Amino acid sequence: MPNPSAPRLRIVGIGGTTKAGSSTEKALAACLAAAQRLGAEVQLIPGTALACLPLYSPEETARTPEQQRFVATVRDADGLILATPAYHAGMSGLMKNAIDLLEDLRDEPRPYLDGRAVGCIVTAYGWQGAGTTLTSVRTIVHALRGWPTPLGVTLNTAMPLFDPSGLCMDERIQTQFELLAQQVVSFASRFAA
After folding, report:
1. How much is the pTM?
2. What burial letters (b/e) apply to 62-88, b meaning 16+ CB within 10 Å?
3. What is the band of 1 on the pLDDT scale with cuts at 50, 70, 90?
4. How many other CB atoms are found less than 10 A from the CB of residue 178?
5. Cα(109)–Cα(105) distance, rounded to whole angstroms?
6. How many CB atoms lie within 10 A of CB 144?
7. How far apart are CA 182 and CA 84, in angstroms?
8. Distance (Å, rounded) from C-alpha 56 to C-alpha 144?
9. Secondary structure (DSSP) of 127-186
């Protein structure tokens, strides 16, 4: 049970695609809604916002306002949920570019994703790409000193998953969203303590 006197945990969801109403973004929104029901303050950074980030270039130290906002949002997060489509067995370029920008957190008191629980969601048109991409995303989270949750959710978008309003139509998948959110909130709470 959440402590009413404790500050609310901040869970940030990052991902989606530039396609309006993408399955990836609907899955991310479903997970964030579950985290919010658990008492967390949530924020969604959709694929359209990621598309506004210039290409990461390590030799370029000047940052646009969009890049500064993105890094500040991740800096202040207690936990993250990353959601990406699988493109040729890897995460989307939008997601990879955003994650590369987290190099700006290297000299922080909590460098990179240190001390942050990170849930991972991968959508793919078929199962093979989802599994290999999930492994890749989890490896990147580890490289950034984050703590991937034990559960990672993979979704086969070749099957209908969401109704037109964005609600998950499969009870088993919704249960996975709830469990992933619970793990992120629970682990983030322990790290925050």
Report:
1. 0.94
2. eeeeebeebbebbeebbbbbbbbbbbe
3. very low
4. 18
5. 9
6. 18
7. 20
8. 16
9. HHHHHHHHHHHHHHHHHTT-EEEEEEEEEETTS--B-TTS-B--HHHHHHHHHHHHHHHH
Residue holding tokens 């990879």?
96
Contact indicator for 26, 166 with CB cutoff of 8 Å: yes
pLDDT tens readout for residues 65-101: 999 999 999 999 999 999 999 998 899 999 999 999 9
- Name residue 190's amino acid: R
Q: Are 105 and 75 in contact (CB under 8 A)?
A: yes
pLDDT digits (tens, 9 = 90+) for 151-175: 999 999 988 899 988 899 999 999 9
- Block residue for tokens 């139509």: 169
Closest among 16, 27, 42 to 170, alpha carbons compared: 27
Q: For residue 11, what are its two tokens?
A: 């869970």
Take residue 133 and report the two structure tokens written for it: 């991409």
Question: Chain-wide mean pLDDT for the chain?
Answer: 93
